[in-house]
Specification:
With 341 residues, the chain is an all-alpha fold. The protein contains 15 helices and two strands. Strands 1-2 form a two-stranded antiparallel ribbon. Strand 1 and strand 2 form a beta hairpin. Helix 6 packs across helix 11 and helix 7 runs parallel beside helix 10. The termini are far apart.
Length: 341
């Protein structure tokens, strides 16, 4: 009886993790036509985050105790995993293909291990080092360095900035999970509550940065081109807010509760594959054979790096463009970004 219940729970968790990966993977595909139609990337980010924050207000009210208990964690999630990752990711896809931008973000697990090894001076396993080498080598194939870095350098740096924001949140979460008493871990905060407040904090920060009052709101009443077809702008915005943010986050955190963080992290790697496939079909962004091989190597390296991490941080990690998960929820999954892409 218990075995059957456990199997059903894992099956449900796997289905939710796949749904979350698919939802996160579509954010860049829906956002890029809006950006190309004339909306500033920061305005698209603000619309996404502010819209999702409004929808999640009832959840935030239910978990209002988090404001008093975990203010630093909520601020870190809002600044790094929401505002930072989103802004850098959407700015990057305005200059480089969606698939490439997301694959660059998958350097985050490797960067976290670099922080652990060289800043915290903690040992890392040989497998983790192999994962880092694979991720960097695969990235070299993705950006085709032999062609003299034919991709937009600023776009690549913006995507790397999204990965660095994820690292900053991972590090903050590691400290935020400590209790102030006997050095034991504090009771993990509810992940959906942290997401709700992270979106609220992110919306507040982005309001100051993006200045939405200067946005051309009439563009939302028009249409945007998607590989030769015209799609209503409001429909793309609804996709970004409802599917690629609210649905993606909620299904992501629930899947982590039903699966182990490691298994959920493996499924989260499909986000880059889904994003690349959707960009290929819907936006006509074709990647070459070396880039596809390099993307597979990046994902392999990211998976090895996160699996070999000595002790993943606790705290909700979103992932993604941002990309991308909640990669890890409060269970401590180490994945790329799930940064809300």
């Amino acid at each position: 009886m218990h075995a059957s219940s456990g199997f059903q729970g894992r099956s449900a968790g796997l289905g939710l993790a796949l749904l979350s990966a698919f939802a996160f993977g579509g954010s860049g595909v829906a956002a890029k036509p809006l950006i190309e139609a004339g909306l500033d990337p920061l305005h698209v980010v603000w619309l996404r985050v502010a819209g999702a924050a409004v929808i999640m207000l009832p959840v935030a009210w239910r978990h209002r105790n988090l404001v008093r208990e975990r203010p630093a964690l909520l601020a870190g999630f809002g600044l790094f995993a929401v505002a930072g990752v989103q802004a850098f990711y959407f700015a990057s896809i305005s200059r480089i293909p969606v698939g490439v931008a997301l694959l660059v973000e998958y350097l985050a697990p490797a960067l976290v291990l670099g922080w652990v090894r060289f800043v915290q001076r903690r040992p890392v396993t040989r497998a983790a080092a192999v994962g880092v080498v694979l991720a960097v080598g695969g990235l070299a194939c993705v950006v085709e360095v032999w062609a003299g870095l034919s991709f937009d350098l600023l776009g690549l740096l913006l995507a790397l900035g999204a990965a660095c924001c994820q690292v900053g949140y991972f590090v903050l979460s590691d400290h935020g999970g400590q209790s102030g008493g006997e050095g034991e871990r504090a009771e993990p905060p509810h992940p959906v509550g942290v997401i709700a407040y992270g979106l609220i904090v992110g919306a507040a920060v982005l309001t100051v940065v993006a200045r939405p009052w200067g946005m051309d709101w009439s563009l939302l009443g028009g249409s945007a081109g998607m590989n030769g077809d015209e799609v209503p702008a409001w429909l793309l915005l609804g996709w970004i807010v409802l599917l690629a943010t609210v649905l993606a986050y909620v299904t992501g955190v629930v899947s982590v509760r039903l699966l182990s963080p490691q298994v959920a992290g493996v499924v989260a790697c499909l986000e880059a594959v889904i994003a690349t496939g959707l960009a290929w079909v819907l936006l006509g962004e074709h990647l070459s054979a070396p880039q596809l091989i390099g993307g597979f190597v990046v994902l392999t390296g990211a998976f090895i790096a996160q699996s070999a991490a000595p002790k993943p941080p606790s705290g909700p990690v979103a992932a993604g463009s941002g990309a991308g998960a909640v990669a890890g929820g409060v269970e401590g999954e180490l994945s790329s970004g799930r940064a809300p892409h």
